[in-house]
Design brief:
mainly beta; single chain
């Protein structure tokens, strides 16, 4: 599948600008300043209003009006049970210009603080990347499983796991050598791939990089463009809970394309 060089450059420039603008969002991944796992019994947390504990149906908050918390535009006073979906986006409370986010990971509940004044955000100057190279925009074939398969992968936090749905295998070649990556369901029709390679922990982040792949055609044909491989949130912040790739997604080759380790 031929890729026009000029189109490749223009689309990559636009994609990279959008990617960095997303990272600069006031409550994006660069704004995280804390991660607290909630215990069964009520506790107060540093820099977080209210009293927090685990409830049968989620996280339990006990707050006073003076705490200044609001949810869905309404002030929080008294008890509030928050029930985030396992592995999904968190439920947020407003506290001034900060967001208090409640998440569920591995059956446990945690609280994250998103603060637009976080040094990781205010000091952000961009993400270093390898030079754009058409060599890494690869023709691939997607071999879908007859039935998507549930898989459990590890996480950057020891003992934590993530449940995902594997849809099939992407097969391609690099310099004539066959390669394969298990692709997960991204939830929007596209595929999501987490991988490590020979650059991981050297010139790229040691955890994993992520690659979004468009929905393949009816014949399984698709382009895997490693120029768009991005860092996971844990490359930017210590308060992420990022999944790790499945064992088969450890490539022996050096994928010198996409984002490098943040400075």
């Amino acid at each position: 599948m031929a890729v026009d060089p000029q189109t490749l450059v223009e689309e990559w420039d636009a994609w990279r600008a959008a990617r960095e603008q997303e990272l600069r969002e006031p409550h994006g991944w660069l704004s995280l300043t804390a991660l607290h796992w909630l215990p069964a019994e009520g506790v107060t947390l540093p820099g977080v209003p209210g009293r927090w504990s685990v409830h049968d149906d989620g996280a339990l908050l006990l707050a006073e009006a003076a705490d200044g918390l609001s949810h869905a535009g309404e002030p929080v006073e008294g008890e509030l049970v928050l029930s985030p979906v396992e592995g999904g986006a968190g439920i947020t409370l407003d506290h001034g210009d900060r967001l208090i986010e409640i998440i569920q990971r591995g059956g446990a509940y945690a609280l994250r603080v998103r603060d637009p004044r976080a040094p990781t955000r205010t000091g952000f100057t961009g993400v270093p990347t390898f030079a754009l190279d058409a060599r890494w925009a690869l023709d691939a074939v997607f071999e879908a499983y007859e039935t998507p398969r549930p898989v459990t992968v590890g996480a950057v936090i020891a003992g934590l796991t993530h449940d995902q749905i594997a849809r099939g295998v992407l097969r391609f070649e690099v310099d004539g050598v066959a390669q394969a990556l298990t692709a997960m369901d991204a939830g929007d029709g596209s595929l999501s791939v987490l991988f490590r390679d020979a650059t991981s922990g050297v010139s790229t982040h040691g955890g994993a990089r992520s690659l979004s792949v468009a929905e393949p055609g009816v014949d399984g044909a698709v382009v895997v463009d490693f120029n768009r491989a991005v860092n996971m949130p844990c490359a930017f912040t210590e308060y992420g809970t990022c999944p790790l790739p499945p064992p088969e997604n450890l490539l022996a080759i050096a994928v010198e394309a996409g984002e490098r380790t943040p400075r």
